[in-house]
């Protein structure tokens, strides 16, 4: 009987250890771990990315009218673009530069860091390649705020000196 009791205790201990191992860590703890192992991106960048995912799923629900089960890399990048413009306007590039985000690939690296700690999920089809060259940051974050070029305006003649009064 003693051996049977010991076996039950060992099995229970293993199950408890497995359960504790399988419990998800919180977002704050995950960020601590990520930033410690990959300091390229600031903590706030990951908070933004989580919020951008929430924004993207809400936008998709409005369009599709159903629960969104998975967001692809390009869909997330599109949502992150819209959300960044909404939140930061013409300062997007300044904010992103401060956070270490310079391209779509950077967002992909952050996504896969979050996948690595169990915060985001992925399917077999998802790949870091999904985030390569989806759009140009200058084109989507700077150009919308650039002043419009006047049409038909003549440049000032270079040969005439400026007259000051």
Description of the structure:
With 165 residues, the protein is mainly alpha-helical. The chain has a domain at 48-144. It is built from seven helices and no strands. α3 (43-64) packs across α4. Residues 4-23 have low confidence and may be disordered.
In brief:
By secondary structure, this protein is mainly α. The chain has a domain at 48-144. Helix content is 59%, strand content 0%.
* Assembly level: single chain
Rounded to an integer in angstroms, the radius of gyration calculated over CA atoms is: 25 Å
How far apart the termini lie comes to 109 Å
Shape field: elongated
Low-pLDDT ranges: 4-23
Biggest sheet: strands, sense, closure?
none
What is the total tally of β strands? Answer: 0
What is the element string, with H for helices and E for strands?
A: HHHHHHH
Mean pLDDT: 84
Which class best fits the helix and strand makeup? mainly alpha
Strand content: under 5%
* Count of separate DSSP helical elements: 7
Fraction of residues in H or I helices: 55-70%
């Amino acid at each position: 009987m003693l051996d049977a009791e010991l076996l039950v205790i060992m099995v229970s201990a293993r199950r408890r250890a497995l359960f504790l191992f399988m419990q998800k860590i919180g977002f704050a703890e995950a960020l601590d771990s990520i930033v410690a192992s990959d300091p390229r991106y600031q903590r706030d960048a990951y908070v933004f990315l989580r919020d951008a995912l929430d924004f993207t799923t809400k936008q998709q629900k409005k369009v599709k009218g159903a629960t969104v089960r998975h967001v692809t890399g390009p869909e997330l990048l599109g949502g992150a673009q819209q959300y960044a413009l909404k939140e930061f306007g013409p300062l997007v590039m300044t904010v992103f530069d401060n956070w270490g985000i310079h391209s779509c690939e950077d967002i992909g690296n952050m996504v896969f860091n979050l996948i690595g700690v169990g915060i985001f999920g992925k399917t077999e089809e998802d790949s870091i390649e999904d985030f390569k060259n989806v759009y140009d940051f200058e084109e989507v974050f700077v150009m919308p705020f650039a002043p419009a070029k006047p049409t038909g305006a003549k440049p000032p003649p270079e040969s005439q000196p400026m007259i000051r009064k």
